[in-house]
């Protein structure tokens, strides 16, 4: 099926919380990373986005 | 092209502390901003000391006064952490080169904004290619006129205050633009290219307008 695709990289920031050495101290760590995102537009008007989604618990 | 004194505005900065008083006036080459004292783009030329002091003032988020070539004044600020780019312009007959400072707000430079995109030109192809590039839209250059007309009908493209560049703010989210694409394709307002292959975008040049 005919379509037009657009790929791009998208920046995500993951955040981790760690307990610090002293009582009540919390260390917040942030890690930046890039992920893929692909968007497709079909001739019929149907649009599909393929991208990272959060895992359901 | 008008003479420099007719197309330049003025930027005034005043700061007074207990020990010192700073009072600067430099030529303003271009300015873009919004209501409520928001500046997004400032391009000034002046001497080395003046430009250095202004870069510090911008970085501090200090207020300054801009006056356009028609004499309209407004008090504005570039907000927190503006980006500053400095360069030199050699002018024949002057011992020292002029210093050029271009500063832009975080909001103008933000590459992750979703909902409001600030652009330095109101050219349709520039707006459309910027939207496609910024939001990662699957689209062709030919779809621009229809989509821009839809955005204009919905009053989502608003001109910014200023001179030098005809800036605009495009107020649309990615999902809204995708919905417009969906509508255009379903209603056959937007047509696919006749042949398969990579979508070619024409080269885009930014022309600086005169006031």
Describe the structure.
The complex is a heterodimer of chains A (57) and B (211). With 57 residues, chain A is mainly beta. In chain A, 0% of the residues lie in helices and 68% in strands. Chain B is 26% helix and 31% strand. In chain B, strands 1, 2, 3, 4, 5, 6, 7 and 10 form an eight-stranded antiparallel β-sheet that branches. In chain B, strands 8-11-9 form a three-stranded antiparallel β-sheet. The longest helix of chain B is centred in the last third of the chain and has 13 residues, at 174-186. Chain B starts with a helix and ends in a 25-residue tail after the last helix. The model of chain B has no long low-confidence stretch (mean pLDDT 91). Chain A binds chain B through residues 2-8, 10-11, 37, 39-47, 49, and chain B through 112, 132, 136-140, 178, 181-187, 192, 196, 199.
Shape of chain B: elongated
Summarize the helix and strand pattern of chain B as letters: HEEEHEEEEHEHHEEEH
Spatial strand sequence of the major β-sheet of chain A:
1-2-3
* Main sheet summary of chain B: 8 strands, antiparallel
Major sheet attributes of chain A? 3 strands, antiparallel
Uncertain segments of chain B: none
Report the span from N to C terminus of chain B: 9 Å
Taking pLDDT < 50 over at least 5 consecutive residues as the criterion, the unreliable ranges of chain A are none
Q: How would you describe this structure in keywords?
A:
heterodimer, A: mainly beta, rod-shaped, B: 211 residues, 26% helix, elongated
Strands, helices and their partners?
The complex is a heterodimer of chains A (57) and B (211).
Chain A: E1 3-19, E2 26-42, E3 47-51
Chain B: H1 4-7, E1 9-16, E2 21-34, E3 38-46, H2 48-59, E4 64-67, E5 73-76, E6 83-89, E7 98-104, H3 106-109, E8 117-119, H4 124-135, H5 144-153, E9 157-159, E10 161-163, E11 168-170, H6 174-186
Antiparallel strand pairs in B: 1-2, 1-4, 2-3, 2-10, 3-7, 4-5, 6-7, 8-11, 9-11
Helix pairs in contact in B: 4-5
Précis, in short:
With 57 residues, chain A is mainly β.
């Amino acid at each position: 099926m005919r379509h037009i695709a657009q790929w791009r990289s998208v920046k995500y920031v993951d955040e981790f919380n760690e307990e610090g050495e002293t009582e009540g101290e919390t260390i917040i760590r942030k890690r930046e990373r890039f992920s893929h995102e692909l968007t497709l537009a079909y001739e019929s008007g149907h649009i599909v986005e393929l991208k990272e989604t959060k895992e359901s618990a | 092209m008008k003479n420099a004194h007719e197309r330049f505005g003025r930027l005034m900065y005043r700061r007074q502390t207990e020990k010192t008083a700073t009072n600067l006036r430099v030529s303003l080459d271009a300015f873009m901003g919004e209501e409520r004292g928001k500046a997004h783009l400032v391009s000034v030329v002046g001497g080395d000391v003046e430009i250095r002091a202004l870069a510090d003032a911008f970085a501090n988020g200090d207020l300054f006064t801009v006056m356009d070539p028609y004499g309209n004044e407004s008090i504005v600020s570039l907000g927190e952490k503006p980006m500053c780019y400095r360069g030199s312009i050699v002018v024949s007959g002057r011992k020292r080169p002029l210093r050029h400072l271009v500063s832009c707000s975080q909001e103008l430079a933000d590459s992750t904004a979703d909902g409001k995109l600030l652009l330095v030109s109101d050219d349709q192809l520039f707006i459309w290619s910027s939207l496609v590039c910024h939001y990662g839209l699957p689209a062709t250059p030919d779809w621009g006129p229809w989509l821009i007309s839809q955005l204009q009908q919905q009053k989502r493209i608003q001109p910014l205050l200023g001179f030098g560049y005809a800036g605009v703010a495009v107020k649309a989210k990615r999902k809204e633009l995708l919905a417009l694409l969906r509508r255009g394709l379903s209603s056959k307002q937007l047509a696919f290219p006749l042949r398969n292959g990579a979508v070619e975008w024409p080269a885009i040049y930014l022309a600086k307008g005169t006031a």
